[in-house]
Structure prediction request, 391 residues.
Amino acid sequence: MSQVQSDYVSKNASKLKPSGIRKFFDLASQMENVISLGVGEPDFVTPWNVCEAGYASLENGYTAYTPNAGLLELREGISSYLNEQFSLSYDAKSEIICTVGASQAIDLAFRSILDTGDEVIIVEPGFVAYSPAVTLAGGTPVPLETVEEDEFKLTSEKLKSAITDKTKAVLICFPSNPTGATMTEEELEDVAQVIKDHDLLVLSDEIYAELTYDQTHYSIARIPGMRERTILISGFSKAFAMTGWRLGYVTGPEEILSVMLTIHQYTMMCAPTIAQHGALEALRNGREDLERMKRSYRQRRNFIVKSFNRMGLSCRMPGGAFYAFPSIQSTGMSSDEFAEKLLHEERVAVVPGHVFGEGGEGYVRCSYATSLESLQEAVKRIERFVNKNTE
Ligand code: PLP
Prediction:
């Protein structure tokens, strides 16, 4: 592309840097025989009954727009599902919007609550899209690093230290991408108290809520006084293996959701109709498949974490999501160096931890949403690499 200097591009948009993940994977995609532990998506194909519901929606002629907030039947399904699974209560008509992936819900949420200069505390290491979404909405992202000593959980002291008189909201994501950290009810209560004391909003990205392995997920929205200040973001991409369908949802207080719906009406109209029919089937008849995939992730998690620790890369047992986040500090390499050398020498792709925030330096993210056979081969290659590169 030619580098023409002009004023065509918005100053705000040009603050954004390309995603560190993409840059790395463009490199990996040009190489052969690469095992990728890089992508954050299930290796499972969407269960067949869900695919059939997609075909059926086309055969039945459901090719037009749905209501802006999504099919009422689907919103009712989401409402019951959240109630049964996580003891959350949201009104299908006024407190749920179906979106184009959780990604659109994140964008909508920030655009709905932020004015220029408002600060959003973003818990890091975290998903790469949060800060850009805050910037595009005119806000100022304020990264707040969690550390391994705290098992990458957010603590109330940490949170207090980042709050200023410009803070409007806090973004949390548990189970976490990339650390796999989860938080208990008591730990969330501590954090929630600070949020209430400072009259802040919370954006809680709970897209990995179903994928917890040692304890049931607890949503911060359940804590008394939090429902009215929580925007909860989730979707079908991860637990239901539906990344390509592009279907997420957002729930929250009507006052905020009605603004989100207005923006959604003008910018998106509605989430894809076929995907909405697929999601309805996933909610009705998808639980067994979800449990099957989860059992497999748990087995892979146990294998990969044990393997990392055995080869001298210290790695906590992640409580949720499908990522291991081993420390590579014992090798003396930066996370970039480690990932690049590993890719070139052993053809294994992992993501350097720093792309998820400064606190991720010294770690790499390895997705275990890949077959056990590939993981076994990847572990062999990584072990050979570590032995060769550690004095
Ligand atoms: N939130 C987190 C924490 C994620 O890891 C991802 C995808 O990697 C998303 C949101 C985006 O999900 P979706 O595919 O529903 O847009």
User: Anything to note?
Assistant: The chain has a mean pLDDT of 95. The two ends are 43 Å apart (CA to CA). The longest helix spans residues 287-310.
